[in-house]
Amino acid sequence: MEWTADAIARARCRLTSAPGCPRVPAHPKATREGDVMAVVKIIELVGSSTESSDDAVKQALGEARQTLRNIKAVDVVSVGLRGDDLSEWRAHVRVAFLIERVSE
């Protein structure tokens, strides 16, 4: 999956209230008394690759998918080159996922 500027902008809108992002109305059921709203947790990860910045993002997302369910958005915060000879791409990403309720 290639990370286009449009895909990155859509992901950023889902995670933040950045200027120019459309406001998303609350779910109608969430306003009823007794209904429970979904909770989204956001974590930050750093992926790395010697191939490309896109591959570094994919590496971070691949690791997240190994332990997380219900991933809803990925926001690429920054990308850059690291290492002595600047041969390693790193991608700083935010991953948003739904928290599951544990029934008692």
Structural overview:
The protein has 104 residues and is an alpha+beta fold. It has a single domain (5-23, 39-98), classed as 2-Layer Sandwich (Dodecin subunit-like), CATH 3.30.1660. It is built from two helices and three strands, in the order αβαββ. The protein has helices at 5-15, 53-67, and strands spanning 40-49, 71-82, 88-98. The protein has a three-stranded antiparallel sheet. Strand 2 (71-82) and strand 3 form a beta hairpin. The protein is elongated, with a radius of gyration of 17 Å. The mean pLDDT is 80.
CATH class: Alpha Beta
Kindly report the name of the CATH homologous superfamily: Flavin-binding protein dodecin
**Sheet bearing the most strands, described?**
3 strands, antiparallel
- Termini separation: 39 Å
Strand order of the largest sheet: 1-3-2
Helical run tally? 2
The shape, in one word, is: elongated
CATH fold assignment: Dodecin subunit-like
Number of domains: 1
Computed structural class? alpha+beta
Provide the succession of SSEs.
HEHEE
CATH-level-2 architecture: 2-Layer Sandwich
Helicity, as a percent range: 25-40%
Oligomeric state: single chain
Strand content: 25-35%
Q: How many distinct beta strands?
A: 3
Detail the poorly predicted runs. Answer: none
Mean pLDDT: 80
Please give the radius of gyration in angstroms: 17 Å
